[in-house]
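User: For a benchmark we're assembling, each entry needs the component sequences followed by a predicted structure for the full assembly. Here are entry 17's components. Please fill in the structure.
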Amino acid sequence: MSDVGTYLYAVALAEDPAPSEGLTGVTGGPVRAISHAGLVAYVSAVPLTEFGEEPLRRSLEDMDWLGETARAHHRVVEAVAAKAPTAPVRLVTVYRDDAQIRSLLEQRHDDFVDVLSRIAGRQEWGVKVYAAPSEAPQPEEPAAPSSPGTAYLKKRQASLHTREEAWRQAVARAEQIHDVLGSVAVASHRHRAQDPQLSGREEWMVLNGAYLVDEERGGEFGQVVEGLRGEGIEVELTGPWAPYSFTTAVETGESEARDDGP
Amino acid sequence: MTESRPVVRQPYSPTPSPAGAGREPANLGDILERVLDRGIVIAGDIRVNLLDIELLTIKLRLIIASVDTAKEMGIDWWEHDPFLTGKNQELLEENRRLRDRLAAVEGARTPRRELAPEADRTRKRSREAEEPDE
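Assistant: Structure for entry 17:
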């Protein structure tokens, strides 16, 4: 029995299947292309001592290992996606050998072609909207305070009110932004809001959207995003990404994951 | 050309900088979210269900999804795990039930008191009724 497995990164519709020169995978080894049935699978050899079931159970719990592996996986996906329509495969999908991958490409051929033709010539953009109620500027009211105490209380009251109002507005804006961006995109997907631990930000994420946009409309999409910025919210654009959010439908038809906050 | 284009963080950074305080071009959180939660799910020969990995489940589901969403998805078992909560949930439950019952018996006089001191005092009071001084 072999102690080497085949790690699958992505499946693509590549005319020129050769991977970018020097492209390395999760263990630092070279990435290879397996062409079969009109599809190309990008793989690399991995030792089963690290990528077998038991070792994976352990190492997946190691955040450092996970971070490194995720980055390497993503690097390969991005490199492949830069050249051809690409369906990223979920992390740590490992086969016994190349023959298993060929049979996968054959058996699931139509599903892959279906998905890949849908994302061909398109890119995924990520847009996150954060509510920043604490930074929400108050409308400048021409204040004529009668005394410092009254002025303070008034200010405090206004601040509390503003916070709540800013939150409500941010949520409404997020809905609106999602709709506007969806009209520029071919497809859109609203993901669960990231926890502050993941986003690294304290503000509540009110939108975590993914948008599949025609390549030639990428600039326009960016401008639309720019135009949507406003008071009380922060809009963050990331991308272009490989179409991670729009290739999941091969096996499970996930519906829009909506998260409207607390 | 397009001066007004927003600042875009490239997801692929050729030289990933070590995770620091600053915003790095390829945000690891964004990458993890994608490679673990999106993309095609194919059952490989090596069967590792990401959701079966307990610690990964806790760390990442909690990180990726907000706690509320995780609850919605039914991933809330850690709340009942004495090891994870650091408390014995069953005992707490029982304690709460006993306190509730006691409160009901006492006509909701002191529903928030701890069980033991309350029982003590009740006993004391009845003793006091029999003999005025200790």
